[in-house]
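Try this one yourself first.
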């Protein structure tokens, strides 16, 4: 440590290695963005820049290894630093998103609750399909990696539904279980599932969109129209109730300081829990779970901080708003772009040389795509009548890729987000955080022998039925309420006349 901090600034010490790796990610994102804009295929199929950058970096990583090219004895693309960036970017992105304040609107249709139920319902059916596929593969490939980990299919909803951060984190937890049923290569397998999800969202999603547009069910506007709109969030940097853009400290500095401070508090909470549970209670086996769920602790900490800030405003102790939605969305966007790029670059194919991985990956991709398509399409048709196709593309993109993919797909047919389908992604994610707690429970018991596995399968099935019933009865009750209000309003108008 003394060498680290007292080294000359011109020495290529570990601090410079970190800066160099961040620079590599940044350079690749710039190159990928240029390639995407100049390549009609990539642009038309809505392939995210982070995914392109990640695959370029992944290829260069292995090329440099073959050519034995290094920078002062260090690899040009360091997997450990890519893991580092993926791990922390995930939590930072969720903190920034959690600080964003949703617009207060009277929502008669209850779209936030319905969207949350749709998201969690998709997680559950993806989890059910993934687990059933992995147990079949584990029986066929009993002497291979999946044979020892029939629960590997639980990474399908994490990779498709939640992205490379969660899939990589949880795969890493399963990889370090230290038991006979550990999923060796789990982190790289989880990242591979997420990468396939991005491809499905971009390629399959765009193909379906073109088919639907060709049938005249929606109109595709194309990139020229969609690129003129700034985004989901209201692009307001300065607001009368907020702190000034430039004061004694820059407004963006304050936004960043909130995110970093909350992550520091999160670290303190996780350290305290580790001390109580691991050091005092001697439950060493939960170490990976505690630190693997850094993003969950970050979300919970953000909710508490946000509640405190709202209370201070309500009590007039804090006169001005310190959080700016637009800037926090930009911080989240940066974090998730870095997470996607670094996550793909950190994949180690050397750990995926087991044929059972590739068989399961192929099956999960095919059947995961099919079940996600049919479930979201059916829900959108039955419970989102007014915005059926807009809702479908928004959630198909998000629940195979990430929220940015969902926004990209729906923007092609709703460039100014007038249908509310894109907002449903944000509002529904908040509701899903509450509904999705049982899914997190499943990820912590699924690997605990056959009992844990079949309990998890049963939970997925029962909770999926529960979410479907919730969607059905909630929608019907809302429709009756809206119809009654409309009837009463009509009757009142007639009486007035």
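Now uncover the answer:
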């Amino acid at each position: 440590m003394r060498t680290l901090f007292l080294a000359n600034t011109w020495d290529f010490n570990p601090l410079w290695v970190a800066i160099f790796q961040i620079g590599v990610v940044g350079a690749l994102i710039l190159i990928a963005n240029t390639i995407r804009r100049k390549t009609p295929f990539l642009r038309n199929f809505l392939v995210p820049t982070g995914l392109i950058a990640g695959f370029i970096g992944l290829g260069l990583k292995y090329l440099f290894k073959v050519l034995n090219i290094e920078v002062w004895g260090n690899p040009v693309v360091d997997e450990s630093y890519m893991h580092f960036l993926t791990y922390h970017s995930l939590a930072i992105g969720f903190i920034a998103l959690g600080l964003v304040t949703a617009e207060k609107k009277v929502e008669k249709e209850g779209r936030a609750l319905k969207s949350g139920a749709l998201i969690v319902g998709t997680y559950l059916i993806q989890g059910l399909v993934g687990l059933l596929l992995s147990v079949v593969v584990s029986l066929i490939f009993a002497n291979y990696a999946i044979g020892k980990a029939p629960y590997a299919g639980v990474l399908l909803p994490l990779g498709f539904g939640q992205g490379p951060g969660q899939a990589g984190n949880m795969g890493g937890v399963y990889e370090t279980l230290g038991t006979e049923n550990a999923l060796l290569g789990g982190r790289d397998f989880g990242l591979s599932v997420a990468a396939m999800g991005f491809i499905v969202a971009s390629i399959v999603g765009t193909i379906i969109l073109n088919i639907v547009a060709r049938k005249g069910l929606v109109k595709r506007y194309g990139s020229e129209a969609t690129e003129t709109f700034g985004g989901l969030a209201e692009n307001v940097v300065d607001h009368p109730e907020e702190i000034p853009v430039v004061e004694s400290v820059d407004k963006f500095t304050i936004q960043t300081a909130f995110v970093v401070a909350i992550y520091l508090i999160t670290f303190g909470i996780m350290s305290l829990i580790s001390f109580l549970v691991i050091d005092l209670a001697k439950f060493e086996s939960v170490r990976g779970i505690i630190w693997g769920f850094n993003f969950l602790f970050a979300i919970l900490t953000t909710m508490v901080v946000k509640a405190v800030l709202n209370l201070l405003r309500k009590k007039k102790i804090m006169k001005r708003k310190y959080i700016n939605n637009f800037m926090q969305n930009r911080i989240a966007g940066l974090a998730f772009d870095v997470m996607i790029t670094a996550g793909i670059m950190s994949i180690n194919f050397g750990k995926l040389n087991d044929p059972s991985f590739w068989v399961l990956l192929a099956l999960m991709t095919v059947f995961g795509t099919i079940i996600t398509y049919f479930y979201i399409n059916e829900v959108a048709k039955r419970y989102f009548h007014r915005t059926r196709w807009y809702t479908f593309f928004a959630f198909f993109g998000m629940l195979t890729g990430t929220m940015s993919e969902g926004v990209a797909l729906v923007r092609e047919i709703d460039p100014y987000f007038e249908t509310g389908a894109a907002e449903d992604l944000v509002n529904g994610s908040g509701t899903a955080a509450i509904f999705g707690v049982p899914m997190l429970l499943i990820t912590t018991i699924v690997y605990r022998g056959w009992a844990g596995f079949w309990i998890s399968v049963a939970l997925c099935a029962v909770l999926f039925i529960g979410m479907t019933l919730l969607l059905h009865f909630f929608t019907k009750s809302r429709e009756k309420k809206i119809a009654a209000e409309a009837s009463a309003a009509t009757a009142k108008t007639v009486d007035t006349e």
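Discussion: The beta strands are 70-71, 74-75. Confidence is low (pLDDT under 50) at residues 1-7, 223-234.
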